[in-house]
Amino acid sequence: MIELSHVSKTFGDATAVDDITLRVAKGKLCALVGTSGCGKSTTLRMINRLIDHSSGDIILDGQAIEQYDPVKLRRRIGYVIQSTGLFPHWSVARNIGLVPRLLKWSATDTTARVEELMGLLGLPVEEFAHKYPHQLSGGQAQRVGVARALAGDPDILLMDEPFGALDPITREKLQEELAKIQSRLHKTIVFVTHDMDEALRLADHLVVMRDGRIVQQGTPLALLQHPHDPFVESLLGGLERGLKQAALTRVKDHMTSLGPTLPAQSRIPADFSLRQALSMMLRDHCDRLTVVDQNDVPIGELSLRRIVKEAQWDRTSQRES
Ligand SMILES: Nc1ncnc2c1ncn2[C@@H]1O[C@H](COP(=O)(O)OP(=O)(O)OP(=O)(O)O)[C@@H](O)[C@H]1O
């Protein structure tokens, strides 16, 4: 668990981070969002002591970070940055194996770990192990960056705009993969991003910052339902807020049982989102869908009326259920 309590950071006269308090529970992903220069990266870098905080307390697993040796601390915390930070003259395999080697794992264990992570990140060993960073696409390099951060099996992962430089399709794919990896590995992750959709999609806990301060924090759905002020509301997408909320809400949580009437022709899987349901209704010119399970067997129905009437959806979300 990561706890920041009344933490500030000043550079000379300038305050980059101003009295922030936040807690990231073990195994959860906390996203920091906000306008440029609001202190997101500084917050992240204080957690692995790349920057020392000026005041307040930062506690990792019950111990103040000053009590950890900075070098050992950084080996325990995975760190992924936008520019990947890969060593250009090292092969992919050597880059990924960096921390296990520093941790003095045996050569056999290191190789096994590198190969395991390459598999997890969709990088076939025969194709990529011996390539160099300049021979990789942006998406591939970013996968190597994530694999390298996971290599020492850290409990904590700090990710600073990890997918910021990628095209939207590659970005979405990597977001999907990170969500999948996270559902298996349950790392405690702090994730900095400019992209609110990315934050809404990945975060268990969302922190909105402005001018070094936290202006609101909570679950993505809680913020979408009750933004504190116009700044948070505009960051969350203003008028698009309803659709973003629908994207976080699953069909199965709002379907009704099959009625006596003929089932609707259009079918939607129960684990799709209400946003996808709305899109399907628009595409198929209908206001009712048959909800099906993984075997395409009808298990309920969903009507437009129900979606609209229940616009104040409860807090059930894809990530919480
Ligand atoms: N080493 C430093 N020396 C002086 N000022 C700094 C230093 N690092 C950051 N700052 C200042 O602290 C403030 C917060 O910077 P930070 O990089 O944390 O913001 P950010 O929210 O991550 O921004 P961006 O989204 O643009 O990356 C900025 O005003 C920045 O200029």
UniProtKB/TrEMBL annotation:
<dbReference type="Pfam" id="PF00005">
    <property type="entry name" value="ABC_tran"/>
</dbReference>
<keyword id="KW-0067">ATP-binding</keyword>
<dbReference type="GO" id="GO:0005524">
    <property type="term" value="F:ATP binding"/>
</dbReference>
<dbReference type="InterPro" id="IPR046342">
    <property type="entry name" value="CBS_dom_sf"/>
</dbReference>
<keyword id="KW-0129">CBS domain</keyword>
<protein>
    <submittedName>
        <fullName>ABC transporter ATP-binding protein</fullName>
    </submittedName>
</protein>
<keyword id="KW-0547">Nucleotide-binding</keyword>
<dbReference type="Pfam" id="PF00571">
    <property type="entry name" value="CBS"/>
</dbReference>
<dbReference type="InterPro" id="IPR003439">
    <property type="entry name" value="ABC_transporter-like_ATP-bd"/>
</dbReference>
<comment type="similarity">
    <text>Belongs to the ABC transporter superfamily.</text>
</comment>
<dbReference type="InterPro" id="IPR000644">
    <property type="entry name" value="CBS_dom"/>
</dbReference>
<dbReference type="InterPro" id="IPR027417">
    <property type="entry name" value="P-loop_NTPase"/>
</dbReference>
<keyword id="KW-0813">Transport</keyword>
<dbReference type="InterPro" id="IPR017871">
    <property type="entry name" value="ABC_transporter-like_CS"/>
</dbReference>
<feature type="domain" description="CBS">
    <location>
        <begin position="255"/>
        <end position="321"/>
    </location>
</feature>
<dbReference type="InterPro" id="IPR003593">
    <property type="entry name" value="AAA+_ATPase"/>
</dbReference>
<feature type="domain" description="ABC transporter">
    <location>
        <begin position="2"/>
        <end position="236"/>
    </location>
</feature>
